[in-house]
Amino acid sequence: MAKRGMLIVLSGPSGVGKGTVRKAIFDQKTNDFQYSISMTTRKPRPGEVDGVDYFFVSTEEFEKRIQNGGMLEYAKYVDNYYGTPLDYVEETLNSGKDVFLEIEVNGAMQVRAKCPDGVFVFLTPPDLIELKQRLISRGTDDMDVINKRIAKAVGEIKMMQNYDYAVVNDVVANAVEKIKDVIRSERLRVTRVMPDYIGMLGENN
Ligand SMILES: Nc1nc2c(ncn2[C@@H]2O[C@H](COP(=O)(O)OP(=O)(O)O)[C@@H](O)[C@H]2O)c(=O)[nH]1
Ligand SMILES: Nc1ncnc2c1ncn2[C@@H]1O[C@H](COP(=O)(O)OP(=O)(O)O)[C@@H](O)[C@H]1O
């Protein structure tokens, strides 16, 4: 049987640059790990493609999936559902390939409980002033919402201790390289590469 793949989870506070860093990783097109496309009830933005950026579905469809146990994790974020369809992750890991998730912090903790052998990477801002600056420059929120997000980020940053690695998103290219280094070194860990010698010998030996 093929060795099960490794689950890599990238998370961090809102506005830290998760989406930007993830896109930079997958733009390289040389990765030997698979991106799990999330499902959401938020409306597509101009240029976004169903089945590429997200699977865009109705609230009814999303809630039906939750009830049927079809989500590995999900969270409500700014009035919309976001979640990871379970079947793609299971099938890909079972085929021996590694899977990469980019999700917000509540979802990441659900995955941690279900898949403790996953690799959890927390993306941090260089500091809170820079985080605020990034939220302002993104231009998607007014000052009131930005201040609420910063207050929330302080709590979210405290969650860092539940992760295996912290990567500072100072310059996107540096963060990309550090995350790829983590993946490379995790693959070399003895507990991941050790062949199943006992299984090979059979039960009677
Ligand atoms: N829990 C969870 N969060 C997700 C998932 N997909 C995306 N997110 C997070 O949802 C948040 C909002 O994403 P999006 O609407 O694309 O906006 P943006 O990334 O802030 O521009 C981001 O923090 C994403 O990391 C998912 O499958 N599960
Ligand atoms: N390393 C970086 N340096 C400067 N700006 C960045 C960096 N990473 C991301 N940004 C900017 O910060 C804003 C938030 O990034 P985004 O990827 O939407 O965050 P998240 O997905 O974590 O909410 C965007 O305007 C993005 O262009």
TrEMBL record:
PROSITE patterns assigned: GUANYLATE_KINASE_1, GUANYLATE_KINASE_2
Q: Name one GO molecular function term.
A: ATP binding
* Catalytic activity field: GMP + ATP = GDP + ADP
EC numbers, comma separated: 2.7.4.8
Q: Which InterPro entries match?
A: GK/Ca_channel_bsu, Guanylate_kin-like_dom, Guanylate_kinase, Guanylate_kinase_CS, P-loop_NTPase
Q: Which Pfam families match?
A: Guanylate_kin
Major location (coarse): cytoplasm
Protein localization: Cytoplasm
- Coiled-coil annotation reads none
Q: Where does ATP bind?
A: G12, P13, S14, G15, V16, G17, K18, G19
Task: Write the record's keywords in alphabetical order, separated by commas.
Answer: ATP-binding, Cytoplasm, Kinase, Nucleotide-binding, Transferase
Entry GO terms, CC: cytosol
Q: Which domain of life is it from?
A: Bacteria
Q: Where is the Guanylate kinase-like domain?
A: 5-184
Residues passing through the membrane, by range: none
Similarity comment text for this entry: Belongs to the guanylate kinase family.
This molecule's function is given as:
Essential for recycling GMP and indirectly, cGMP.
Protein name (database record): Guanylate kinase
Q: Its gene?
A: gmk
